[in-house]
């Protein structure tokens, strides 16, 4: 068996272990599904009436998708920090398995949870009036872009989880940086209406561009007022979103693996 095949086999075992652990601790899955539903209902009905009604809901849902998969990276942070604190990583280290397997297994299992979250959110979105108005191929590409971005964010979470010194630190560190990044974006409002520095950040923010990529592929409004974005990233949203996700993975996989080796060697 080649080293790659062995690594993939070990990763699948770790991923299955993580999924079984969710079955034993269903509160993890509950928080990953209830929170996005609350966001959808809150912004669709509480704010949607004053911000544009049905058209705003169609603008909103792709942004909520992207925000949710970004926040799901916190599960990777807490999961790895918890395994470190309980000594599970030390047990894995004593086994003849790939160093990458623990991290890839964690990010893969979290991606599986994200798939379930996206399905539930899509059904909730259909209930509140969101529709996919593009072709089947474009819709499939849209969900691929979303899951690729989710996988990239999981690797960011893996690195943070290995850096955190405890589960308590991981809980705050995994979410602290996400709030400004997700809210300074076009998830809820148009980036064009923000003041200068914030607008520049929002326009190049991967959250904004990923949301715009989904809106374009799903055939949803690109802006609440029906206008078109005038920034280069949003005008090339699909390409930019895929490129950024690939770059994040390429950057954080070696960082996370290097950090894992340092932690495991203590």
UniProtKB/TrEMBL annotation:
Protein's cellular compartments: Cell membrane; Membrane
Keywords, alphabetical: Antibiotic resistance, Cell membrane, Membrane, Transmembrane, Transmembrane helix, Transport
Membrane-topology annotation of the record: Multi-pass membrane protein
KW Transcription regulation (keyword) present: no
InterPro entries in the cross-refs: ABC2_TM (IPR013525), ABC2_TM_bact-type (IPR047817), ABC_2_transport (IPR000412), Nod_factor_ABC_transporter (IPR051784)
Transmembrane segments: 28-47, 59-82, 103-128, 140-163, 175-191, 237-258
Start and end residues of each ABC transmembrane type-2 domain: 27-263
Major subcellular site: membrane
Family to which this protein belongs: Belongs to the ABC-2 integral membrane protein family.
Protein name: Transport permease protein
């Amino acid at each position: 068996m080649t080293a790659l095949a062995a690594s993939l086999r070990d990763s699948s075992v770790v991923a299955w272990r993580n999924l079984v652990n969710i079955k034993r601790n269903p509160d993890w899955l509950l928080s990953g599904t209830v929170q996005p539903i609350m966001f959808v209902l809150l912004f669709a009905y509480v704010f949607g009436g004053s911000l544009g009604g049905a058209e705003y809901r169609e603008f909103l849902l792709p942004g909520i998708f992207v925000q949710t998969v970004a926040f799901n990276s916190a599960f990777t942070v807490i999961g790895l920090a918890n395994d470190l604190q309980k000594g599970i990583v030390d047990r894995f280290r004593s086994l003849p398995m790939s160093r990458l397997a623990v991290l890839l297994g964690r990010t893969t299992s979290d991606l599986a949870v994200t798939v379930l979250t996206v399905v539930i959110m899509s059904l909730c979105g259909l209930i509140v009036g969101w529709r996919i108005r593009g072709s089947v191929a474009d819709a499939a590409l849209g969900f691929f872009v979303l899951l690729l971005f989710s996988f990239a964010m999981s690797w960011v979470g893996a690195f943070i989880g290995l850096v955190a010194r405890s589960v308590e630190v991981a809980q705050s560190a995994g979410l602290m940086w996400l709030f400004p990044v997700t809210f300074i974006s076009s998830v809820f409002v148009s980036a064009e209406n923000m003041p200068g520095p914030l607008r520049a950040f929002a326009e190049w923010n991967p959250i904004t561009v990923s949301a715009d990529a989904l809106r374009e592929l799903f055939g949803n409004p690109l802006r609440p007022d029906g206008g078109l974005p005038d920034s280069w990233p949003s005008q090339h949203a699909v390409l930019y979103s895929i490129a950024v996700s690939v770059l994040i993975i390429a950057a954080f996989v070696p960082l996370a693996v290097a950090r894992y080796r340092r932690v495991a060697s203590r």
